[in-house]
Amino acid sequence: MFALTSGMQYYLYGKATDMRNSFDGLSGIVRNELDRNPLNGDVFIFLNLRRNLIKILHWERGGFALYYKRLEKGTIEIPELNSGSKSIQISWTTLMLMVEGISMRHLKRKSRYTATTENVPYLQ
User: Which residue range forms the structural domain that includes residue 62?
Assistant: First the structure.
């Protein structure tokens, strides 16, 4: 079951990944290159060089889940990466746009209310 939600943290790995890597290889990349714990519930996204393959690694209660998709046509569009960073944090919405093949370059996000300490007194 696809159990990813908007409340999770998503990290897109910035380098092309060998898609022969599975649970152990991808969790090794998370530990050694991203300096993150793959067991903390965050979601890690990996793409191959041609960007037609995507793997998503996520720790669920009791074990890893690995989601894998191969595009038969086209490529997966990714957000811009900073030149020095090994990964970027993305939103659940961005991940869904990537997986569904929707271009992010022509979308405009509407402003939405965000609770902050200034506009919600009980958060102070």
Answer: 10-105
